[in-house]
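Methods: holo model generation. Sequences were used as deposited, without trimming of termini or removal of tags, and paired with ligand SMILES retrieved from the corresponding compound records. Each pair was processed once, and we did not select among multiple samples. The sequence and magnesium ion SMILES for this entry were:
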Amino acid sequence: MGIKEKIAEIQLEMARTQKNKATEGHLGMLKAKLAKLRTQLLNPEDGAGGGGGDDKGFEVVKYGDARIALIGFPSVGKSTALSLLTGTESEAAAYEFTTLTCIPGIINYKGTKIQLLDLPGIIEGAAQGKGRGRQVIAVAKSADLILMMLDATKPDAHKAILEAELESTGIRLNKNPADIYFKKKKTGGIKFNTMVPLTKMGENPSDVVYRVLHEYKIHNCEVVFREDASIDDFIDLVEGNRRFIKCLYCYNKIDAITMEEVDVLAKQPHSIVVSCHQNLNVDRLLAKMWEMLALVRVYTRRRGEPPDLNEPSVLTHGRGGVTIKTLCSHLHRDMLKEFKYALVWGQSCKHTPQRVGKDHELMDEDVVQVG
Ligand SMILES: Nc1nc2c(ncn2[C@@H]2O[C@H](COP(=O)(O)OP(=O)(O)OP(=O)(O)O)[C@@H](O)[C@H]2O)c(=O)[nH]1
Ligand SMILES: [K+]
Ligand SMILES: [Mg+2]
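and the model returned the structure below.
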C-alpha cells in the first residue's frame, strides 16, 4: 500500500471513530500515525515520494528584507495583484492556470524592499501533488507572510480547503508554537506533568500523550504542558518540522459583489477586501501586509555622527523579538564578540539615550549606537 492510501485509510478510521473518553487515546495514536505519514510524503528521498510528475521546484533567489507568497485558487487575481503592487508584469487572463511558474516582484514600502512572489493557482489535493501543488507549497513555506488570495464572488469554502492543504504539509497559520517543554532522555521513562488544567485532551491527558510517544518510539523523555494545548499541538512539537507563518486573507473582486457581502468578508479575522481592477483598498492591503510582517527598521549611528536615516537595517522577528543581538549579527559576524554596550534612542527606551545590553528588545525606527 502506498503512503497516500495509508493516509486515506487512517483518515477514514478517524472519521468513523466516535470521540469520547474511551477513544481519546486511540485517536491520539491515529493522529500521530497520520502526522508521520505526511512527513514521509514530504520527503521524497525516503523513497516513497508520492508527488508524481514534474517535481522540479521553483527556485527563486531570496531578495530584499522579507518575502511574501501569493497563494490561491486559479483565477482569483494573484497575477493581477502582482502587477499592481510591484510593477512587474505577470500575465493575467480569464482562464485558469495562466501562471505556470514563480514570478517575483518587489514592493518598495517605508524604506524597505519586500519580495512578492506570484505562483500558479492550487486546488484541493495540492499537498498530495495535484498540479504544481507541492512546489507551490514549498515556496509558501519559505515565506515570511502568506497572502492568501480569495475570490469574493466564489464560495468561502475555498479558504478552508487551502488552509487544510497548507496545514497538512506542516504549515501553521497565524499560530505560535504551544508552550510545552519536551526533552528526550536516555533513561528514566516518560515523565509527564502539566502546570494548567488540560481541557482539550479528554479525561486522561497523560494516556493520550503516552500513546503518541509510543507511536514515535520515544520511551524516555520529560514533558511539561505550560498551557492548555491540544494533542495536535503536542504532535507538532514532537515532529519538530512545523513552520509557523502569518497569513493575510485577501478577498479580491469586491467590485463584483454587494456592499452587504463586502461587510461580512471584511469582518473576518486577518482579512482585507480589495478590488485589483478598480484599485479599491489597495493602500490598506499594503499597510496590513506591512503590519503583519512586523519588520523592525533600525538606524545605526557612529559616535559623534548623525544616524543614517536612508539605510535602515531591516530586521525580522525571530522567537523572542528583535534585540541588539539580532542587529549585531545582521551588521557583522564579529560584532557580538566585541560587544560591550549600546546606546538606544527611540520607542523601545524609557529615557534617551538608554545604555543597554545585547538582550534589549528593539522597536521600529529606533536609533542605535554600538559601543
Ligand atoms: N471583477 C474583477 N476581476 C478581476 C479582478 N482582479 C482580477 N480579475 C480578473 O480575474 C481573472 C484572473 O486574473 P489573474 O490575475 O490571471 O488570476 P490568477 O489568480 O493569477 O490566475 P492563475 O494564474 O490562472 O492561477 C482575470 O480575468 C482578471 O482580469 C478584480 O478586482 N475584479
Ligand atoms: K487566470
Ligand atoms: Mg496568475
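The pocket of magnesium ion (ligand 3) is lined by residues 78-79, 98-99, 118 (CB under 6 Å).
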